[in-house]
Amino acid sequence: MTENSFENMMHSSGGAERIGNMLMSSGAVNMVMNQAKRMMWSVVEYKDLQMVYTCAIKEIETKLDILSTEFNLKHKRNPISSVTSRLKRTESIAEKLSRNGLAFTIENIEKNVRDVAGIRVICSYIDDIYAIADALLKQDDVKLIECKDYISSPKPNGYRSLHLIISVPVYLADSKKEVMVEVQIRTIAMDFWASLEHQIRYKREIPDQESVCNELRACADVIAATDEHMLKLRKKIESAEDAPTEDDMLLERLRKLDMPIM
Ligand code: GTP
Ligand code: MG
Fold this sequence. Notes:
By secondary structure, the chain is α+β, with helices and mostly antiparallel strands.
């Protein structure tokens, strides 16, 4: 606004009031702009949070990968059959927070949603599950936050799995963050049941619910019995073998000498 036009406005009738209105509306514009900026910062911070959880997944996957590499090289069999991971979808995070009456904020996500980063480890036998859990938990930088053993105490529907909530440090360029990760460890058989049960149940009206649930539970029990049976068979075969001598062990390691380390 030029000095002249300012003078003219002041001298015309109601000039001061018009300026007051203009200032007020520019204040309102500023407020809206600031709100929009804060919102955009929250979006950027949320992306950073996703990055940190992705890094935590990478950390645990690397730990599992190292264990797997060692097992491949040193032992006759590898207890880890496969590993998958996922970052919880924004929609599911929002749904979990609202279910618990909490607002969608970075602080609430970090404190209350423990499964933003999720890893699933599939093992061959039941005892492998506990061996993998022990190998992870005895590492200095891994802290156990919570353990739910749905193998010793299956869910009423028959679901079996070992769930660990652990935290690991993620080192960034100028900071360190302890990040929670949910690790589900289960056998191939337990995974088979859980995957099919999830498919059958997911977002569906189940007819004759009680009998379907009973049948699912019965299937889970058959699968659990088979898991136990397979473990017994493996142990029987192992105990029938002579304990390896030092020479046997050396020979086994020499055989694997040129095996690619992956
Ligand atoms: P969520 O709110 O689902 O995370 O449950 P929670 O916090 O009580 O944790 P819980 O350890 O009981 O279960 C977490 C996860 O385990 C689920 O997101 C599923 O991946 C798996 N899970 C738990 N119960 C079942 C089940 O009955 N069937 C199947 N297929 N998966 C299950
Ligand atoms: Mg979950």
